[in-house]
Amino acid sequence: VNQTNKDESSGLYLAARGGHIMVVQKLLDMGANIDAPGFQYGDALQAACFGGWTEIVQLLINHDATSSVPRRGEYSSPLQAALAGDNNPIAEYLLNAGVKLTTQQQF
Q1: Where are the domains positioned within the chain?
Q2: 106 band by pLDDT with thresholds 50, 70 and 90
Q3: How many CB atoms lie within 10 A of CB 96?
Q4: CB burial class (10 A; 0-12, 13-18, 19+) of residue 52?
Q5: Nearest 5 degrees, angle CA 87-CA 92-CA 101?
Q6: Helix and strand tally (H, E) in the chain?
Q7: pLDDT digits 0-9 by tens, 40-77
Q8: 12-15, long-range: CB < 8 A, 24+ apart
Q9: Domain 11-97 adopts which CATH fold?
Q10: What CA–CA distance (Å, rounded) separates 3 from 15?
Q11: Is 11 in contact with 32 (CB distance < 8 Å)?
Q12: 96's torsion region: left (phi>0), alpha (psi -120 to 50) or beta?
């Protein structure tokens, strides 16, 4: 359940990036590593934030996704990914949910 593809992206990351909420839920139920890395967007939470997948963002946060570990990818925090994807409602949700929004890059 935690295997990665040639780009070292996890199944959870790929499902979140593509907006496949049922697959995300199933992988979480099977014990997928919620903070497993992805490629372009860093991890599942950042991919969902960039893609505008509000229900997936909520699901991941409810399962304690944090994106607090420095990662590769274009964005260094869920908030940065949401704003880059022009997903202001998700950015507001992140702020209201109290998600740790540390970043090591500048906007």
Answers
A1: 11-97
A2: very low
A3: 8
A4: middle
A5: 95
A6: 6, 0
A7: 888 999 999 999 999 999 999 999 887 665 566 788 88
A8: 12/36, 12/44, 13/37, 13/38, 13/39, 13/41, 13/43, 13/44, 13/47, 14/38, 15/44
A9: 1.25.40
A10: 13
A11: yes
A12: alpha
What length is written for the chain? Answer: 107
pTM value? 0.88
How far, in Å, CA of 21 to CA of 40, rounded?
19
Residue whose structure tokens are 């994807």: 85
Q: What residues are paired with 37 via a beta bridge?
A: 43
Does the pLDDT at position 13 exceed 80? Answer: yes
Residue whose C-alpha is closest to residue 33's, from 2, 64, 60, 9: 2
